[in-house]
Design goal:
The chain has 426 residues and is of the alpha/beta class. The protein is 38% helix and 13% strand. The strands form 2 sheets. It has a 7-stranded mixed sheet, with helices on both faces. It is globular, with a radius of gyration of 22 Å. It binds pyridoxal-5'-phosphate. Pyridoxal-5'-phosphate binds at residues 84-86, 89, 110, 112-113, 154, 158, 183, 185-186, 205, 207-208, 217, 219.
Length: 426
């Protein structure tokens, strides 16, 4: 499959190109293991000297086909699927950080990622400094230390809906000799391709729009192949110096542009093992086949709903970058010209209690922990996903106490608006 195909075509046909007599649909290779004829053949696989499948924890043909589709959609060199978005963000960082290292992250990020960074990674000896993504260059640069290994952010923050200035973040990260890692879950490669703006590594919770039907939890890491690890040889010794667990193999020497993603697969995944099941990869692939159509509809519906909310006297505030006058409108026009996603953040006059009562009165929109799938749903982050955060952490994460996260689905938009209206009236 050539690189020139458009995203829509890649969604439908990318990753799996059957030859004569092979199934038209990507098969589920439900096998833990793969057969070889000689002991020597197997030994070469273990030493990464030959390419081939031998154990599904390392690689599986179904997963590889789906990873290849996602890599093509993002314009990267390769991708790896993980069991969840949490695993993707953890592995993406752990691949180049160890105890004693440090990284910088924007503070408006998904609550689960915030906990991972602020609590669990600290227990592993990896420190994080959170920065306000809208702070000036000098303030953000002040967070960097000699042992800083990367800068992290979300294209569209969950749930605050702020838009990241990717080009500026890439410039800042590169000025410090570290890669920019972006969680592109909400935008998806249909609406934003961060590599085109200088981002080096992309992560996804494929659980959201990519799957799109709320059927399979999953994640992905995509490597642009662009970061020059050798230019900062000592800082990234994990990639540029011999790996003891592979008889002294050096990832950058052996794999070049594929060094980062090969290490993620052959070392981090080998040792920690949060693989996506081939069954879930199959479901994800079916979701990806319609991603381009669904994103268009999510954006159309969300724009209409955001405009409705904006003009409703009971609504205190609305955050949706597609609204002229929104704080992130200009960044949205630059990075998300075809639309952002289906997620809108807003608050009702009367604050937290009114917001909760409103949600309880919704009929079509369900209260679920999920976000970003075909069905309209709502969540009150301060009571749910971000429950573990203090008021100060909530504010840092861009979550007002009255914030309602509305994930607009692909139903008829008039029905969605009618449901919101009846809940407001009640
Ligand atoms: C949901 C989500 C995650 C976590 O993904 P899971 O698949 O639930 O583990 C990470 N980042 C963002 C932006 C998310 O929305």
């Amino acid at each position: 499959m050539t690189k020139k195909l458009s995203p829509a075509t890649l969604c439908v046909q990318g990753g799996w190109t059957p030859t004569k007599g092979e199934p038209r649909v990507l098969p589920i290779i439900q096998s833990t293991t793969f057969k070889y004829d000689t002991s020597e053949q197997m030994a070469q696989l273990f030493d990464l000297e030959a390419e081939g499948y031998f154990y599904t924890r390392l690689q599986n043909p179904t997963n590889d086909a789906v990873a290849a589709k996602i890599a093509a959609l993002e314009g990267g060199v390769a991708a790896m699927l993980t069991s969840s978005g949490q695993a993707a963000n953890f592995y993406a960082i752990f691949n180049i950080c160890q105890a004693g290292d440090h990284f910088v992250s924007t503070s408006s990020i998904y609550g689960g990622t915030y906990n991972l960074f602020a609590v669990t990674m600290r227990k592993l000896g990896i420190e994080v400094t959170f920065v306000d993504q809208d702070a000036d260059d000098a303030t953000i640069l002040a967070a960097f230390q000699p042992n800083t290994k990367l800068l992290f952010g979300e294209t569209i923050a969950n749930p605050g809906c702020s838009v990241l200035d990717i080009e500026r973040m890439a410039r800042l990260a590169h000025s410090q000799g570290v890669p920019l890692i972006i969680d592109n879950t909400f935008a998806t490669p249909i609406n934003c391709r961060p590599f085109e703006w200088g981002c080096d590594i992309i992560t996804h919770s494929t659980t959201k729009y990519m799957d799109g039907h709320a059927t399979a939890v999953g994640g992905a890491i995509v490597d642009s192949g662009n970061f020059d690890w050798e230019a900062y040889h000592d800082r990234f010794a994990c990639l540029t110096e011999p790996d003891e667990s592979y008889h002294g193999l050096v990832y950058t020497q052996r794999f070049g542009k594929l060094a980062y993603i090969t290490k993620a697969t052959s070392q981090v995944m080998r040792d920690l093992g949060s693989i996506q099941s081939p069954q879930n990869a199959f479901l994800l692939n079916i979701g990806l086949e319609t991603l381009h159509l669904r994103m268009e509809r999510h954006c159309y519906n969300a724009q209409r709903v955001a405009e409705y909310l904006c003009h409703n006297e009971r609504v205190a505030w609305v955050r949706y970058s597609g609204l002229p006058g929104d704080k992130y409108y200009d960044l949205g026009q630059k990075y998300l010209p075809n639309g952002s996603c289906g997620v809108i953040a807003f608050g009702l006059k009367g604050g937290r209690d009114v917001s909760i009562r409103f949600m309880d009165n919704l009929k079509l929109a369900a209260i679920v922990t999920h976000v970003a799938d075909a069905r309209t749903c709502v969540l009150h982050p301060a009571s749910h996903t971000h429950r573990q955060l203090s008021d100060e952490q909530l504010r840092d994460a861009g979550v007002e106490p009255d914030l309602i996260r509305l994930s607009v689905g692909i139903e008829d938009v008039d029905d969605i608006i009618a449901d919101l209206q009846q809940a407001m009236d009640a």
